[in-house]
UniProtKB/TrEMBL annotation:
Family in the record: Belongs to the KptA/TPT1 family.
Name of the featured protein: Probable RNA 2'-phosphotransferase
NCBIfam families: PRK00819.1-4
Pfam families the record matches: PTS_2-RNA
The species this protein was found in: Oceanirhabdus seepicola
Main function: Removes the 2'-phosphate from RNA via an intermediate in which the phosphate is ADP-ribosylated by NAD followed by a presumed transesterification to release the RNA and generate ADP-ribose 1''-2''-cyclic phosphate (APPR>P). May function as an ADP-ribosylase.
Keyword check for NAD: yes
Record flagged with keyword Transferase: yes
InterPro entries in alphabetical order: Ptrans_KptA/Tpt1 (IPR002745), RNA_2'-PTrans_C (IPR042081), RNA_2'-PTrans_KptA (IPR022928), RNA_2'-PTrans_N (IPR042080)
Record Gene3D superfamilies: 3.20.170.30, RNA 2'-phosphotransferase, Tpt1/KptA family, N-terminal domain
Keywords from the named record: NAD, Transferase
Length: 181
């Protein structure tokens, strides 16, 4: 059952963050879709899921990737989209230091160009090293970058805090990046 929920969660991530067309749903401009339609289309696609399983996935996701609207009739991903959605994020003042987990093969590019959002809407940063390590370890041995977020903000860069606690910004120029000591 655990593997089934992991697979369903990964598929939800694909559909709600990157490719809703895979199952023929449309996200509104804010990334929301009907829970009822999502379930019908996932089941028709062969990804058998009940409302109870969906509720459990949303509630137990360790990164809180998904959110229901207040009446639980719509669902969306909280952040991480490669397609444009307006998440109505409010600008926030970040802590002085934030962290980003990466791996060695990306370091030269990061040192040259800074952190870029690539195919995503934002660069993702965390408030704690442990979360950054988890993110970096998905692709190999994590290298932790210290981001001088307070200085960036003071220099006019905007930061947003997603509903699930991920700090977001458009880019991190190299002069604000310090390799873990």
């Amino acid at each position: 059952m655990k593997n089934k929920n992991v697979n369903l969660s990964r598929f939800l991530s694909l559909v709600l963050r990157h490719k809703p067309q895979v199952i023929g749903i449309k996200l509104d401009k804010n990334g929301w879709c009907s829970v009822e339609e999502l379930l019908v289309k996932m089941n028709a696609y062969g990804k058998n899921i009940t409302i109870e399983e969906l509720n459990k996935i949303v509630a137990s996701d360790n990164k809180q990737r998904y959110a229901f609207c207040e009446d639980k009739k719509r669902i969306r991903a909280n952040q991480g989209h490669s397609l444009y959605v307006e998440l109505d994020l409010k600008e926030c003042v970040p802590p002085s230091i934030l962290y980003h987990g990466t791996v060695e093969r990306f370091i030269d590019n990061i040192i040259t160009k800074g952190l870029l959002k690539m195919s995503r809407q934002h660069v993702h940063l965390s408030e704690d090293i442990k979360t950054a390590e988890k993110v970096g370890n998905r692709r190999g041995k994590a290298i932790i970058l210290h981001i001088e977020a307070g200085r960036m903000h003071g220099d006019g860069f905007k930061f947003y805090l997603s509903e699930n606690g991920v700090w977001l910004t458009d880019c991190v120029p190299r002069e604000y990046i310090v390799l873990e000591k």
